[in-house]
Amino acid sequence: MKSFNNLLLENASIWKMPNRSSKIYYFETLESTMDTALALARQGCESGTVVVAGCQTKGRGRMTRVWHSEKGGLYFTIIIRPDILLEHSARIGFAASLSMARSLNQLFGIAAMVKWPNDLLVGCRKISGMLSQVEAQSNRISFLNIGIGLNVNNDAFELAPESTSVKSLLNKIVSPKEILFDFLNRLDTLLSDSKAIISVMDEWKKHTITLGRKVKIVTNQGTYHGIARDVDTSGALILELENGMFQTVLYGDCFHQ
Ligand code: BTN
Q1: Is 72 helix (H, G, I), strand (E, B) or coil?
Q2: Helix (H) or strand (E) holding 39
Q3: Quick one: which of 70, 34, 37 has its CA closest to 55?
Q4: 9 band by pLDDT with thresholds 50, 70 and 90
Q5: How far apart are CA 18 and CA 15, in angstroms?
């Protein structure tokens, strides 16, 4: 009889990446890489395991939004078991958005900047978004799943007008696999360097276009208007409100004004 794990991976092929041992499972279609990665993580898969989909039928964005996931884009979730405390877990997300910004820059000369917390923008158009999911026991992280959607060869702006893609910026088709491998190289290197991961917030601050700007922040508790002043060690945004008071926001949507 087939185990649940085998059933789950029945339609996957394996992408071999030079000098990397953790598995990269590629599926032509998934509902969401987040669901498959969650199941694998709960079954105890190795840290660094990646689930990639050619397209998603139920791609999820932040704040319960849909992430349009037609063929041509890069959609994946990486399962990480970091040896850090839960309160520092935001560092991993910041390391991931920074790594993707560097990949786009090094591979294609695309100057992507980070909008808090982890969106990548080129000019004022979104090219990539990130979703994370954590499971922890008390203060220890069991796993942290980071899902990234990057508009590569898909015409994202037809569905989301304020977005762009690598293809529309370069006017040519590129390889989503090449981008993923470059990204994984950078992220693996960053995560294996304990000093670099501590200073990742400072690096992120050099690549963000949010700090110092007038922003609107929408949270489940309410909407705030103010100037984005800083990001604290938990990844929360520190806002100076219009009345001069300061507000810390851990989770929300950020709109540059
Ligand atoms: C956002 O900007 O709202 C976050 C988008 C995250 C999309 C990625 S695509 C791969 C992974 N699977 C999903 O269903 N969502 C994330």
Answers
A1: coil
A2: helix 33-42
A3: 70
A4: confident
A5: 10
| Alpha-helix residue ranges (DSSP H) falling in 48-174 | 90-108, 166-170
* CB of 122 closer than 8 Å to CB of 100: no
Closest CA to 130 of 179, 178, 92: 92
C-beta atoms surrounding 154 within 10 Å:
25
Ligand 1 binding residues, C-beta < 6 A: 32-34, 56, 59-62, 65, 67, 75-77, 119, 129-131, 147-149
Six-digit token string for 48: 């660094």
Closest CA to 155 of 29, 70, 31, 76: 70
User: In which residue are the tokens 């004022």 written?
Assistant: 124
Q: Between β-strands 13-14 and 24-30, what pairing exists: parallel, antiparallel or unpaired? A: antiparallel
Whole-prediction pTM: 0.95
| Angular region, 73: left φ>0, alpha ψ -120 to 50, beta rest | beta
Measured from the Cβ of residue 244, the count of other Cβ atoms closer than 10 Å reads 7
Which of the listed residues 36, 63, 69 should we mutate to test ligand 1's pocket, taking the one with most ligand atoms within 8 A of CB? 69
140-166, pLDDT tens digit by residue? 999 999 999 999 999 877 777 799 999
Residues 6+ apart with CB under 8 A from 127: 104, 110, 112, 120, 121, 150, 151, 163, 164, 165, 166, 169
- The string of pLDDT tens digits covering residues 21-34 is 999 999 999 999 99
- Any idea what the Cα angle at residue 122 is, between residues 117 and 125, rounded to 5°? 80
Distance 7 CA to ligand 1 centre (A): 24
